[in-house]
Amino acid sequence: MSEKKFDIYLEFNYSKLSLAAFNKANDKLEHYNETTYKSYYNNNNELNFEKLDKIIEEKILEIEKATGEYVRDIYLIIETPQSLSLKLSVSKNNEGNKVTKEDAMYLVQSSKQQILKSNDDFEILHILVENYILDGTQYKFLPLENKCNQFSIDVKFICFPKYLLKSFEKLFINHQIYINKFICENYLKTFNFEDKEQNICKYARDIVRGINKQEVVSIPKENKKKGFFEKLFHFFK
């Protein structure tokens, strides 16, 4: 199978569906289209997946015609009132030692397990380390090599209900399409992008590529060229 030339981003929100194709060779936006709709939400403001199936089929055919290649995977942006934002502070006794990447990873993993344990009906989409605190002094980015006795972090988790994500996965599997990553639209709207004129799909692409250095991003383990921590944390670069 030949390597695909385009990355496809698709957005669902309360009033429109946006579809974008980015050329992987030059990162140029080759195709962009918005479709407005009102009737795809039921009385509980939840998406009606039966009605969405037809528009998905139409949009996939549209993007395949525009790019000249089959769509096999996408990045999906979702706006939903069912998203959940949780914050947690965790700490460890650093015993006067220098702060390391391992220390930060330990605290992130610890906070993640606590969130998952108490919210097993939700899946974490984004993990944001908002603050690093060394002996009461707060930093926005990890001050490596600084010594401290008490090391703590403030972490924000953006979560979606598992059933909603599974419904989207099923919707696209019916069209033989895999979802690379779910992206929370409300998160995109709150991030301070430099270019205010971009469409939401371009914002999502920037986030996936690691523009927010405070977001923890996991990269597949198959990538052996990078060390473990470089793969786990964009903000250590």
How would you describe what is shown here?
The protein has 2 domains: 124 residues, 2-Layer Sandwich (Nucleotidyltransferase, domain 5), CATH 3.30.420; 76 residues, 2-Layer Sandwich (Dna Ligase, domain 1), CATH 3.30.1490. The protein is built from 6 helices and 10 strands, in the order βββαββαβββαβααβα. The strands form 2 sheets. A 5-stranded mixed sheet has the order 3-2-1-4-9, with helices on both faces. Strands 5, 6, 7, 8 and 10 form a 5-stranded antiparallel sheet that branches. Strand 2 and strand 3 form a beta hairpin. About 6% of the residues have low confidence.
List segments where confidence is low: pLDDT < 50 over at least 5 consecutive residues: 219-232
CATH class of the largest domain: Alpha Beta
- Structure annotation, total helices: 6
Largest sheet strand order: 3-2-1-4-9
Count every beta strand, where a strand is a DSSP E run of 2 or more residues: 10
User: What's the CATH superfamily of the largest domain, by name?
Assistant: ATPase, nucleotide binding domain
Describe the sheet with the most strands: 5 strands, mixed
Number of domains: 2
Helix-strand topology string: EEEHEEHEEEHEHHEH
Computed Rg: 20 Å
Net shape? elongated
* CATH architecture descriptor text of the largest domain: 2-Layer Sandwich
**CA(first)-CA(last) distance:** 33 Å
| CATH fold-level topology of the largest domain | Nucleotidyltransferase, domain 5
Strand pairing plus helix content: what structural class?
A: alpha+beta
Assess the beta-strand content as a share of residues. Answer: 25-35%
Fraction in helix: 25-40%
Mean pLDDT: 86
